[in-house]
Amino acid sequence: MQSDQDRLEHARAVWEGHLRTxxxxxxxSGTCQSAKxxxxxxxxxxxxxxxxxxxxxxxx
Length: 60
Ligand SMILES: [Zn+2]
Description:
Blueprint: H1 4-21, H2 23-26, H3 33-49
Helix pairs in contact: 1-3
Bound molecules: zinc ion (ZN).
Zinc ion (ZN) binds at residues 18, 22, 24-25, 32, 34-35.
């Protein structure tokens, strides 16, 4: 069973991993649609955690 914190960490890891490995995001052509969706899901988990921003905001 995953805690909210685990899901939050996982969402962030997936998003950050994408930024490093995606040709568009890691290159000069900017953040792709997938990265925006990943960031959105991370941010919504962050808000759902609702503990006043203990973790850094996701700004890509
Ligand atoms: Zn990307």
